[in-house]
């Protein structure tokens, strides 16, 4: 009898904890994604040249387009099923962020966006930022 009571109590504690956890995770995800100040001033060491942009486009199509779309509009084939939606890489809001902030975001990721610091080299991540900048300009 006593054992049964404890089990019920344990179960209700677990339910409460799970609810709190889920509510917290949902709240965290709706917050705007802001890069830490210290990352914002970092300068892109990779100059944007036609050769770099060509390389970066290939990287982008393979790694980023499934979510962000081939033209960076945030409308890749996987986008429909994702929350939050992949960012529009042609938007003014994104264009207003510094290269350093974008580099930090690409490196760290944020669910469902993967963390690229172990997948792509630093140079590749900077090249991708050159490419994203070229998308904003051609809008
Ligand atoms: C699995 C889907 C997915 C893939 C693959 C992906 N992203 Fe994302 N990306 C997202 C989502 C979703 C967000 C929005 C996250 C948020 O706001 O919390 C995002 C946001 C971003 C942002 C931040 C935009 C802003 O407004 O600050 C950048 C930059 C970015 N992605 C670049 C890339 C690059 C570069 C690649 C390829 C190397 C890539 N992403 C691959 C899903 C993806």
Question: Could you characterize what this model shows?
Answer:
The protein has 139 residues and is mainly α. It folds into two domains: 1-31; 37-137, Cytochrome c-like domain (Cytochrome Bc1 Complex, Chain D, domain 2, Orthogonal Bundle). 58% of the residues lie in helices and 0% in strands. Helix 3 (50-63) packs across helix 7 (122-137) and helix 6 packs across helix 7. The model has no long low-confidence stretch (mean pLDDT 89). The site of heme C has 23 residues, from helix 4, helix 5 and helix 6.
Which bin fits the share of residues in helices? 55-70%
Share in β-strands: under 5%
Task: Name the shape in a single word.
Answer: elongated
Radius of gyration, taken over Cα atoms and rounded to an integer in Å: 20 Å
Low-confidence runs (pLDDT<50, min 5 residues)?
Answer: none
Total domain units: 2
Distance between the termini: 70 Å
Order of helices and strands: HHHHHHH
The CATH top-level class label of the largest domain: Mainly Alpha
Mean pLDDT: 89
The largest sheet, given as strand count, sense and whether it forms a barrel, is: none
